[in-house]
Write a structure and sequence with these properties.
Elements (H helix, E strand, L loop, with lengths): L1 E2 L6 E2 L32 H8 L4 H10 L3 H31 L5 H27 L9 H9 L2
């Protein structure tokens, strides 16, 4: 008994073609090459990573153009997390300007540094988690993101 080199089906001796898949069988048969599988667009994990690349802006872009649930969740979470951090930075700057520059620059600098570190850690962490194909939910933002994404 012989076996098909393509699908593994057991065939009778002397058969030229596999009865299951139609591939040529025997020593004279040429090897069958199949082209690499093609994919349409980006893989989900890459698209999820790109949702966080430029913060809420790429989140908005991917939310509008990609309809896959995994990508939509990460896009919505990117909009919520980095949109909120962006708004906090604007509020911090306006509070600093409203109070005046006297004596408050040290507090403003410290708060701005903390906000920058939180943004950096969230940015790198969320991109890594999305690239791994996981769905990490930021505690408060995930609930809002699920509502936005329609999940």
């Amino acid at each position: 008994m012989a076996f098909c080199g393509k699908c593994g089906t057991q065939t009778a001796d002397g058969v030229a073609f596999c009865p299951n898949c139609g591939a040529a069988i025997g020593a004279a048969a040429a090897p069958v090459y199949s082209p690499a599988p093609t994919t349409d667009g980006l893989q989900e994990n890459v698209a999820g990573l790109l949702c966080y690349l430029v913060g809420w802006l790429t989140g908005l872009i991917f939310f509008l153009i990609d309809k896959r649930p995994f990508v939509r969740f990460h896009a919505a979470q990117s909009m919520v997390v980095f949109g909120a951090l962006f708004v906090f930075r604007i509020i911090l700057t306006f509070l600093f300007l409203a109070v005046g520059f006297t004596g408050m620059w040290a507090l403003h600098s410290m708060l701005s540094l903390i906000l920058s570190l939180v943004t950096l850690v969230a940015w790198v962490g969320l991109m890594v988690v999305a690239y791994q194909g996981k769905k990490f939910e930021v505690p408060i933002a995930a609930g809002i993101a699920k509502n936005i994404a329609g999940q």
